[in-house]
Every structure is written in C-alpha cells, then in structure tokens.
Amino acid sequence: MQVLETIAAFILAIGILVLVHESGHFWVAKFMGVKVLKFSIGFGPALISRRWGRDRTEYVIAALPLGGYVKMLGEQAGEDIPPEDSSRTFDVLAPGKRFLIALAGPVANLIFAVIAYAGVAWIGILGLAPIIGLVNAHSLAAQAQLQPGQRITALNGQKVYTWEDMRTGLLSAAIARVPAQLQTDNQGQVATHTLALQSLKADSVGPDFLGKVVGMEPYLPATVGAVEPKSPAAAAGLVAGDQIIRINHHPVPSWESLARQIESHPDKVLELTYRTAAGISKTVQIKPQMFLDKTGKAIGRIGIVMAPLPRDLIVMRQRGPGEGLLYGLHSTWQMSWMTLEMIVRMIQGFVSPDNISGPIAIAEYAGQSAQAGVAPFLSFLALVSISLGILNLLPIPILDGGHLVFYALEMLRGKPLSPAVVQKAQQIGIVLLLMLMSFAFYNDITRLMTP
C-alpha cells in the first residue's frame, strides 16, 4: 500500500509540474497567435484524448508521465500547412516572440513555486525546534564552540524558526563558500558563533552535510517510546517514558547521542542510568545485541524506539496574506539562486555530484511529503518546480535554454542558424541529457543500496 501511495504521489507531482510548465508555453503561444495542435501531459500512447476550442486542439494524458509537450503548427520543418493557417505558424514568428514562448515554461515553474511557498506560509508547516542535541568532537560546530542545548535564533542576520531554516541557510552559505554567523540562546545566555564554511574542502557539500561536515544534530529527547519484548532493554526493566541520562557515566544529551553510543558497543556491557516517569533515577547493566548493517559492520541494539516529540519541540508558524506572499517570493529567489550556485560549484568540484537525484529519489520524497500533509507536499512541489525551471534554462540543446540560445543568436545574426547546425547541436544535447539521467539513476540506486 505504501509503494502504491508513493507511486500515486509521484505521478500527481510530476503531472502538476508538467502541466504548469507546458501551460506556460501553451498560453504564450496562444497569445502570440500561434495555432496549437496538441497539449500532452506525458509521452507515448494516449490514455485520454479530447479536442476542444476553435482550433480543435488535442489535449492528451499519455501513458509515460515523465514529461510533456506542446505541439505548435509550423514548429517542425516539412509540415503541411493549410493556406488559411499560414500566418499562424510558429516558424513565421519573429525570433523575439519565439524566445518568449520558450522562456514561458521555466517562468511558469518559478511563478508556481512562489504560489506554492506562499501556500505553505499561509497553511503553516510543522518543524523541529532549532535546538542542538549533539556536537561531534573536532567538527566545525565544535570549533565554533557550539554546545548541546543551545537554541539557534539567527543565521547571518536572518531569524531562524526551525531546524530546517537553519539547515537550508547553512547549505546556502556552504555552497557560496562564505562563513556562517550563528546566534544562539541558552537559557538567556546569548552568544555568536562563526562556522568557517569558506574553508571547507572541495566536494564537502553532499548528503548528510549537517551531520558529517558541520558536525551537529538536532535535539531529540532520549526518552523511551516503546520497548521490544525479550530485548536487552526489556530484560533490564526499561519501560515507555523512561529517559536515558547517562551511559558509562557520560551524559546523554539527545537520542542521537544515545543511538551512537549503543551502536558503537555491540555485545559489550554498558552501565545505563535513566530517570523513570515518576522522577526516580536508576542504573542498570545492559549488553546491546550485535547486528550487522547493510555494509556488514557490527552494530549494537537494545530494542527501544524513541518517544513522540513533546509539543515544546514542535514549531508551527503561519503567516498572513501579505507576509506569506513575501515568503513565497523570498523562498523562490533563495532556492533558485542556491540551485544555480550549486550547479556552478558542482562543475568547479566544490559540491558533490551525489546531490543529483533521479526519478526514484523524487518519488520517495513525493510519497513522504504527501503522507506528511498538504503543506509539506506543497513545499516539495515548489522545490522540484524550481529545479525543473532552472534545469530547463540551462543552455543545453533540446532543453528550453538551448532554444533560447538559438533564438538569441538569430536575433544577433539577423538570420537563423542552419538546420544542419541545429540538428547537430540537438544530437549533442540528447547525449548530454541521457548522460545526466543515467548518472541520476546511478545515484538513486546507490542510495537504495547504502544503509
């Protein structure tokens, strides 16, 4: 059932984004007076096909939902043009008008992202409070003297409301290779910390950037939510509601710290101190069972799961109509700029190409966000819409950006490029696009195989 829900969410998301993108091309073409022959969501055999309007445009939902297209009269050489429609063909338009039609698809994606992010702001989205739970020794966070328990309130002058705000801000700073000024508040003690992100090694920005590179994790209380029967935890007397406070006399600041200490001690006796729901402290001996992860590494497990987060760690922020729209504009600009900068840094070798995701990863995120609610799904749609818009603006033949280059050169030269040059460039573009898609699939499969 979960797989079916993921597939349905993926098809819905791709359908919405392709509809938005192709609608941009469609409406600007219609405004320019071009006769549109077909508007297709998806490729391949038609599942649903209807003709509407004065031009009898064919509207299609096709079998393969990974894209779509708008077919305009005169777009391809050698078409049979009825005499009465000779003035309504795409190829008779001035290059500037063709430029606008090609540009309209990516612009529509960016406009949709503004509206989707504004919707997120109006609805409100739950987030994790930006409280530090774990700081790795010798990490950038440790060097900046960040400590567990501190609440992050601002990043480079911008207020931080959730852990996701902070994560996005740090990623943006790392991609731009600029330092990050974090302001923290620990029970009224306000301090400023500088993360030297500009000194990161090349290829540092990648999956799990915050934990592996910056070296800090969010605060998740080390409170037991459930205990597996016949597990080491059950044998030691742990029950739901118990809070783990020390292991081998070392404080346990968060669930992440607890998990790491247990995993790193398979089949070894640990001294565990916990506080019961009644406030009574107890100390027990416990030996984590040894398991092998997907890589064959031995890890420890004691058979407990984390308790639901308390309300004071969950942040909900809603914005009014005007403030929500400003949030949509700001978020779209920020994510668009970060996407462009990430592409540049990836070419330079400062950002890992492992960040490229394919359809499998997108489907997983679509399913997860849809299950989380309307606001998370809208946020996901906005992010993917921005990626789709920016990707299509890249100057790669066969993409919208490639057509924009052709039309710009035609305006500069006063005449179009020769069909042979265009055909050769499009062949190169197809090869580049296939290489990119193959690499994205490789990343998806690698993630599935990595624990």
From TrEMBL:
- Can you tell which superkingdom this protein's organism belongs to? Bacteria
Keywords, in A-Z order: Hydrolase, Metalloprotease, Protease
Listed name of the protein: RIP metalloprotease RseP
Q: Which organism is it from?
A: Acidithiobacillus montserratensis
| Name of encoding gene | rseP
